[in-house]
Design brief:
With about 80 residues, this protein is α+β, with helices and mostly antiparallel strands. It contains 3 helices and 2 strands, in the order H-H-H-E-E. It has 2 domains: about 35 residues, no CATH class; about 35 residues, no CATH class. It has a two-stranded antiparallel ribbon with strand order 1-2.
Length: about 80
């Protein structure tokens, strides 16, 4: 069965209750994850993950925003910005 056929089949099964667009989007994500087994990136630790995501998503990133490891624990070091 092709990807388009799987999406159409999923949309027909679930589209009535949730709306065709949402069912199609959810079905596409499910099919892609099953088909290609997309995994999450491996981060060094949670602090590095948080800092990297904040840098990518914030419009104005604080100048002092970095991951700091002290011993075996990871921390996010961030300056406070006035609002």
């Amino acid at each position: 069965m092709s990807v388009d056929a799987e999406i159409a089949s999923f949309a027909l099964r679930h589209g009535k209750a949730r709306g065709i667009e949402r069912a199609t989007a959810q079905g596409l994500v499910r099919i892609l994850l099953e088909r290609w087994r997309v995994g999450q990136r491996r981060w060094e630790n949670e602090a590095v993950r948080i800092v990297e995501v904040q840098r990518r998503t914030q419009a104005i990133v604080p100048a002092l925003l970095q991951a700091v490891t002290i011993g075996s624990r990871a921390f996010v070091l961030r300056e406070l910005m006035p609002t």
